C-alpha cells in the first residue's frame, strides 16, 4: 500500500529560491491552512508535478510556475520539488524534479534540468531513472494508480476540480482514462478486425485450396503429356535427321551437275551471242534490201559524196529556220487573238445567259406570285403585267406570312401552357409515388433501428439484477432496523447509566458478592434474549422473502406462464426455464449454422467467380497477344493465316526454282552490255549508236542493265532470302495461331460458361440467404423474449431457496427455546441490581458493568445507524435499478409497438402505391395525348407558315436577282461584247492569210531538203549494206567453228540432271520442313508445359498441402478469437458495471449524509452504452434524483451543489480505484457552500476518516482557509498538529507546523 511521507518545495511560485520549504504528510489526516494567496494550492500543484510531471493549467507559458527571477534581481532561477514516498510494495523512494528559468534580453527560456528517482534500501540510495519520460511512467506505477487518477482525483487542481460537471466530451475523456477503457476497447476491436480478416482470408484460402488441388491434378496430367511429347519428339528427330541427310546428298549431286554445266556456259553464251549477232545482221540486211537501190560506185566515192551534203543542207535549214520563226510569231498572234476572242465569246455567252436568266426570273416571279396567291388564297392579283400589281401582291403575301408566324407563336405558347399543366399533374403524382417509396424505406430503416435499440435495451435490462422481491425484502429490513434502533435508543435513555454509576459507587462495598451472582445470571439471560431476538429476526426475514416471492409472481407471472407453461411453480421453474432457454438457443444456433453454411458457399462461389474472371481476362489477354503476333507476322487478319502461310510456301518454292534457272542469262546480258559500251553497237542487231550520250544508247543501256539486275545472282539471292525470311516469320507465328484458336474457340467460351453457371448458382444462394436471415431473426426474437425473463426466473428461484432455508432455521431456533423452561427476565435482574446498588462491593462491579454497557449501547446504536444508512443506500440503489429496468422494459415494449406501427404503415404505403400507379399511367396518357394533338396542330401551322415563308424568301431572292441585273446594266454589257468580237475576228483573218502564204514557202524548202536527205540515205544504206554483209560472213564462220564443240548438248544433259537432283533435295527439304515444323510445335508445347510446370505446377502438391493446413488452422483461429473477444468484452462490461455500481453507491451514501437541501435526493453517474461497428463505448453524465425524477445535473445546479457533487464524486472514485494508494487531497472544499452544507461536509469527512483510519495508508489532505470548518471536522480526534502557509517579510511562502488545539479553541 503506497503513501506519501514528506515533500520539499524550492523556487516554485512564491516559495523562496534560497531554501526549501518542507511539509510532512500524516496519517490519517494532514491539514494545511492559510489565508488566500499564501501559497496553499502550490502544495497540490507540486504534488501533481512531482508525481506526473504535469504543470498547473496555464502555468507552462513562459515559466509562469517558477519563481520570477526579476523579484530576486537574478537572470536565472532554479526550481525543485522533492517527494519521499512509499511504494505499493513498501519500498521507500525519493523522486526529484528540477526546472530552470532564464531571462534573456527579449525572452524567457524554461527548461527541465536534473530529474531522478532514488530507491532507499538499508540506508543506501540507488538511482532507478533520470529520464523525464520514464519518471512520468514509473512514479504512478510505484504509487499503484494511473496518471489520470492522480491528475483528476487524488491531486486535482482547484481550477479543474469541477470537471465531473464539464461538457460530455470532456467527461467521457476523463472517465475513459480513469477506467482505462481505451486499451480494452482497442483490443476488442483489433480482435474483431483480426477475426473479420481471417473470415475473408478463409474464403480465399478455401478457393486457393481448391485451385491448388486442381493444379496438383493438372501437374500429374502435364507430367504424363510431357513424357508422351518427349517420345514423339525423339521419333521426329530421327525422321528429320534422315531427311536432312537425303537433302544434303541430293543437293550435293545437284551442285556437282550445276558446276559441270557451268564449264560449257562460256562457250554456249559466246555461241548464242554470235548467233544473235548473225540473226541481227541478216534481219538488218533484209530490211535494207527492201528499199535499197544498189550503186556501182566504190565505198570511197560514196563516203566523199556524203561529206559534201552537209554544207548544202545547212543553207536550206537556215532558210527554213527563219521562216519557221516568222510562222511562230504569226501563230502566237493568232493564239493571242483567239484567247481574246474566246474570252469575249465567253463574256457574250455569260451576258446572254444573264439576260435569259433575267427574263426567266421575271416569268418565275409572276408564276410564283400566282401560285402563292392561289395556294394561300390571296385574291385580286391575277393580272401581273404591271409592276405595281406585283409589288402589291408581294406586300400582301409578306403581311400574311408575318400574321401566320404570330399565330404559330401564340399556338405554341398555348400548347406549352397546357403541356406544363399536364406535366405538373404527372410530376405531382410521381413525386407522391417517390415520397411514398421514401417513406417505405424510412419505415424499414426505423424498424431495423428500433429492433436494434430494443435488443440493446433488453440486454441492459437483463444486466440489472434488481427485482420487486429484493426491494420488498430491503424495505422490511429497514422497518426492522428502525424498530430495533428506536428500541435501542429508548433502552439507552431508560438505563440512565450516569445515575446508576453514582449509586454503584456509593453502595460498592455492600453489594459486591450479590452483584457478582447477578452478573452471572445476567449473562445467561442475555444469551437467551439473543436467541429470542434471532428467532424473531429470522421469522421477519421469512415473511419478507414470502412477500417478495408473491410480488414477483404477481408482477411477472403472465410472462413466465407464456414461456414456461401455466402449471409452473417456483420449485419447477428453474428446470423448465433452462429447457425453454436451451431449446431457443439450439433453434438460433441451428438457423445460424444453416445460414452461415450457405453464406460460406456463396463466398466460395464469389471467390471462384473472381478467380475465373481473372483467369478469363488473362486468357483474353493471351489471345490478344497471340493475335498481335500473328497480325504482325502476316500483316493481315488472323483468319487469313493459313492462306498467307500457303502463299509464303509457294513463293519460297518459286524463288528456289528461279535461283537455279537464271544463272546463265546474267552472264549473257553482261556481255551484251559490255559490247554496247565498247563498240557503240547492239550485239543482237549490230545497229551502231552515235555516241554514249545518244538518247537511244542511254535507253538501250538502261534496259540491259535492268535485265542484268533482274537476272543477277544477288537479286535472286535477295528474293530467295526475303521469301525464306517471310516463310520463317510466318511459320514461327504458327504456334501463336494455334494458341489463339485454342483460346478463342475452347478455353474462353468454357470459362465464360462457367462464370454464367456460377452467377446463377450464387443468385440462388443469395435468395436462400435472405430467407435464412429472416428465419434467424425470428428465432433470435424468440430467444430474446426468453432471455428477457432470465433475471426474473433467477430471482424467483433464489427467493424460493431462501424461504426453504429460513423455514429450517425457524424450526431449529424454536426447538432450542423450548429446552430452557421458565427463567428470570432481564428486567427482573436489573431491578435486583438497582435495589442492591447501595452496597460498596457490589456497586464497584456495577460501575464496571454499567460503563461497559454504556459503551456497548453507544457502539450498537452507531452500528445500527450505519447499517440503516447502508441499507437505505442499498434500497435507493435497488429502487433506481428497478425503475431503470422497468423503464428499459417499457421502452422495449414501446419499440415493439413502434415496429408494428411501422409495418402497418408500410402496408398502407404499399396499398397507396398500388392505387397511385394507375393514376400516374392515366396522367401520362393524358399528357401524351395532349402532346400529340398540340404537336399535330403546331405541325400544321408550322407547315403553312414555313410554306408561306419559303414562298416569300424565294420571291425576295428572285426580286434581288432582277434588280441586280437592272442595276449592273446587263443590256449594255451584251452589246459591247458583240462589237469587240467582230473586231477581233477581222484581225485574225488578216494574220491567217499571211500565215498561209508563209507555210507554202516553208513547204517548198522542206521538199528541197527531203530530196537531199533521200539521196544521202540511199548512199548511206549502200555503205551499211556492204559492211553488214561482210560482218555476217565472219559471224557464220565463227558459229560453225563453235557448234563443232557440241557444248549445248552436254550442258543441257547436266542441267537436266541438276534439276532432277535439285527437285529431290527440295522435296526432302519440304518434307523435312514439315517434320521440323511439327517438331518445333511439339517443342513449343513441351516448353509451355515445362514453363507452366515450373511456374505454376512445380510445387502444386506442396501448395495444396499448405493451403489445406491454412484452411483448417484459420477455421480454428476464427473460433478461438471469437470466444476470446466475447469473453474479453463481457469481462470489461461486467467490470465497468461493477465499478459504476460501487461508485454510485458511495456517492449516494456521501450525498445523503452531506447535503442538507431537500431539492436533490441523491446524485449518481449515468453510463450509457453505445455500440458502433462492433465496438462498445460509454457516454457519461452526472444526474440528480429529484422526487424520483432523473435530471442532468449539468446546467441545473448551483455553484455550491457543483462543488459538493465534485467532492463526492472524487471521494467515491478514490475509494473504488485507489485500493493501493489511500491518498486524496481536497483543495478549498468549502468553496461556494453554505453553513449547513459546510457542517454536513465536515461531519461526513469525520465519519470517512473514522471509518478508514484503520487502513494503514489512508491519507486525507485538506487545504482550507476556513478554520471553523476544521473545528466542525473535530480534527483533534485524528491529529495533534496542522500546517500553515503564510508570507514572510520578503513575501515568500513559508510552511510552519502548528498545534491543532490553537484551531480548536478558536
TrEMBL record:
Catalytic activity, as annotated: ATP + H2O = ADP + phosphate + H(+)
Primary residence: nucleus
Gene3D superfamilies: 1.10.287.1490, P-loop containing nucleotide triphosphate hydrolases
Domain Rad50/SbcC-type AAA: 7-233
Compartments, as annotated in UniProt: Chromosome; Nucleus
TM regions (residue ranges): none
Cofactor: Zn(2+)
Regions annotated as coiled coil: 412-446, 471-555, 713-912
NCBIfam families referenced in this protein's UniProt entry, alphabetically: rad50
Official protein name in the record: DNA repair protein rad50
